[in-house]
């Protein structure tokens, strides 16, 4: 089945530094990837939609200059948290929609998530 | 907010019992999906039910959909300790997730 690899699974960084999280579709091409943020015991909040070859679409309230998304190929999307602050500490999850699926076109495959801790 | 809600927010049961979780949503949908999340992990797709379907089964899972009430339910029969996880419903192309139900199954 479709597999999405997300890396790193955990990262600790100092305030002011930037952190890059990668999301790769391993056995399928993903024209669309989604990035979510999840706080403890809460639901996933969609941050942005990443479309291969074009600019990401950000949800209301998400700073695009803060959370840089690049989807340069059909198998890789990256989220860069720039100038990270402690309030950016969270669990970030990516998901991908496979291209060419029939009835399953709207089913997403999720990465395992990345836990970011900003000191 | 388009976010739906699940209830209960938390559910604790014994192994062998059935677990029922409900989901309400606000917009019109083409389909509704249920996902499972183990603590600190990504989500795993469980089942999809289309708007023209009323009930769907997959193993020990049974999902119902009532579009007139904008609600869905997920039933896990004969629960196991390994079913302990959070369960989310999701809808729309962007998959707007509900608030989730944290299920704890005690052995």
Task: Provide a descriptive summary of the structure in words.
The complex is a heterodimer of chains A (119) and B (107). Chain A is mostly beta strands and 119 residues long. Helices cover 0% and strands 54% of the residues of chain A. Chain A has strands at 4-7, 10-13, 19-25, 30-38, 44-51, 57-58, 67-73, 76-81, 90-98, 108-110, 114-118. In chain A, the strands form 2 sheets. In chain A, strands 2, 4, 5, 6, 9, 10 and 11 form a 7-stranded mixed β-sheet that branches. Chain A has a 4-stranded antiparallel β-sheet with strand order 1-3-8-7, with no helix packed on it. Chain A starts with a strand and ends with a strand. In chain A, 35% of the residues are buried. Chain B is mainly beta. Chain B is 0% helix and 56% strand. Chain B is built from no helices and 11 strands. Chain B has strands spanning 5-7, 10-14, 19-24, 31-37, 43-50, 55-58, 61-66, 71-76, 85-91, 96-97, 101-106. In chain B, strands 2, 4, 5, 9, 10 and 11 form a 6-stranded mixed β-sheet that branches. The model of chain B has no long low-confidence stretch (mean pLDDT 91). The A-B interface holds A 4, 6, 34, 36, 41-44, 46, 49, 91, 93, 95, 104, 106-113, 115 and B 3, 30-31, 33, 35, 40-45, 48, 88, 93-100, 102.
